[in-house]
Amino acid sequence: MMLGMTKWLPFSVLVLAACSGPQPPPPEPLTADPPIGSTSADTGEADTELERGIAYLKNDRAADARVHLEKSLLLKPSGDAEYYLGLAKEKLNDKPGAEEAYKKALAIDGKLAEAAANLGAIYLDDPARPDEAIAVLQAALAKSPADARLGQNLAYAYGLKGDVPGASKQYETVLAKGDDAMVRFAYGTMLFDHKQLDKAAEQLKKALSGVKDDAPLLVTIGRMLGGAKAFGDCVTAFDRAIKLKATEPEWYVRRGTCRHEVKDEPGAQDDFRAAIKVDPKFAAGHYYLGLSLLGEHKRAGAIASLEKAAALGGDIGKAAKERVDALTKK
Q1: Closest CA to 2 of 297, 300, 266
Q2: C-alpha angle 135-138-144 in degrees, rounded to nearest 5
Q3: In the Cβ-directed half-sphere of 73, how many Cα atoms lie within 13 Å?
C-alpha cells in the first residue's frame, strides 16, 4: 500500500497579509532639541514653525511636532504642513485626525503622493474601506504614475474588494516597472487568498527566488506553496528557513509533509524525527511519523508514535487516538 493512500490530517495554512503603512519622514534622528531661529529670516514664521515641526517628528516627539505644525497652518495653509500634521497625529494614535489632515493636504496639493499613500493606508486598515482607498489612490496615480507605493496599495485595495482581475492587472503594472520580491509576495498572497492556487504558486516561486535571508517570510511562502501543491518549492523554502534557524519543530514537520508529497519518504521521516528531537512534546512530529511508518506497513512503530501523539492531547492527539483505536481493533 502506498503512503499516498493514507489520509493525513490537514495542517492549516497560515498567511500573512501586508499593506504599505504610513510613509515616515526621512530617517535622520536628532540627538538634541530642534534648533530655534536657525532658518533664514525670509522664510517667514510659518515656514519656521513647519521646519520645527518636522524636526520634532524626526526626533520622535509627535506631540511637540503637532503644536508647531498647527501654528504653521494658522499662519499659512500648506499641503506639506497638513501632511506632516497627519504623520504626527498618526503617531499619537489619532487616526480620524490624521485622515482629515491628509485630505486637507491633498486638497491643497494633489501631487503629494506621500499624503495619498498614507490616506490610502488608513482606508485599507481594519475596518477596510477599499472603495475610498481606490478613489484616492487612482487620483494620486494619475498625477504620480511612477510611484510604486501607490500602485501596490491600489492593487491591494482591489484585492480587498475581491476584484481579482483588477488587482492582478495593477500588480502586473507595478512589476512591469521593476521586479520586486515583496510585490510578488503580495500578489501571490492575494491570489492564494482567492483560491487561484496555480497562479499563486507562480508568483510565490518568483518571490522565493528574490527573498533574502528572512526566515519568517520564507516560512510563510513555504506554507502557501505547500497549500498550492507546489511541494518541491515548499521544500526549497523550508530548506532555506531551517538553515537560518534550526530550532522550530513545526518547520521540520511542514517540510516533511512536502517531502512526503514528492515521494521522499526517508527525508520526510528524517524531518519528523528532527522535529521530535527539537521538542519531544511536539505532537505533530509523532503523529506524522506514525502515519509515515504506517504507510510502510511498520505497524508496531506506527502505533508507538501515534500513541505518543495521543498522550500529548490537543486536536492532533485526538486524531492520533482515533488512529490507534482503529488499528488496535483489527
Answers
A1: 297
A2: 140
A3: 19
d(CA 175, CA 185): 12
pLDDT digits (tens, 9 = 90+) for 85-110: 999 999 999 999 999 999 999 999 99
* C-beta separation of 62 from 91 below 8 A: yes
Which of 113, 121, 122, 110 shows the shortest CA–CA distance to 148?
113
pTM of the predicted structure, to 2 decimals: 0.80
pLDDT at 43: 52
Q: What burial letters (b/e) apply to 78-89, b meaning 16+ CB within 10 Å? A: bbbbbbbbbbbb
Helix (H) or strand (E) holding 183: helix 181-193
- Annotate 188-219 with b (16+ C-beta within 10 A) or e (fewer): bbbbbbbebbebbbbbbbbbbeebeeebebbb
Taking the C-alpha atoms of residue 7 and residue 319, their distance in angstroms, rounded to an integer, is 11
Distance of alpha carbon 157 from alpha carbon 180, whole angstroms: 19
The grid coordinates of residue 69 equal: 505644525
Total count of residues recorded for the chain: 330
* Region for residue 27 given its phi and psi (left: phi exceeds 0; alpha: psi -120 to 50; beta: otherwise): beta
For 281-292, how does the pLDDT look when each residue is reduced to its tens digit (9 = 90+)? 999 999 999 999
